[in-house]
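DUF1648 domain-containing protein
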Amino acid sequence: MKLWKENKGFIVITSLITLLPMAIGIPLWQELPDTVATHFGSGNEPNGWSSREFAVFGLPLFCLAAHLVSAAFTAVDPKKQGIGRKVYRMLILICPAASLVCGLSIYSYALSWDINIEFCVKLFMGILLIIVGNYLPKIRQNYTVGLKFPWALHNEENWNRTHRLAGGLWMLAGAFFILDAWLNLRGMWFIFAGMVLVPAVYSLILYLRKQSQSS
């Protein structure tokens, strides 16, 4: 739990940030309808609904639980030496950021604020992918963070080469998501799938090539 102890203050601060939507929702309680949209499809159209109580209290608390579990599990990783302080902090910023985006989306729609929810979500995804993609090549072997293909976990060269490729692809995908926020590009699901499938196939090819060389 060394990482947890070294970043205890940071975890407390990010936990409070995760709960900010709750702090915002309480003063808005009387203005919010009994049932609010909590899931949105294309064109900012809601396709999922929840109670006001769940929106204000349930979602932030769920994000907080996910945040703390993520921070704890990463800190006790068997190969935790592969997770540096910067990578650890980047990881535990994801849930607080997601909580803020979700809260903003829910309250803005319920109260008819002039905010483009789809734009905000796509922009958030793009920025997140660029940040994660930048860090992927710097992550050493571990069981918590990164692309945990079995053959990469047991071969350092495979892991490093796979994550160098994935890092570039994820940053490129992030740029496309940001463009999509303004231009509504088509075929974004292919880009999303390619982020995982291309590195997976590449990693498998490296593994099979090494197996053939050793036999």
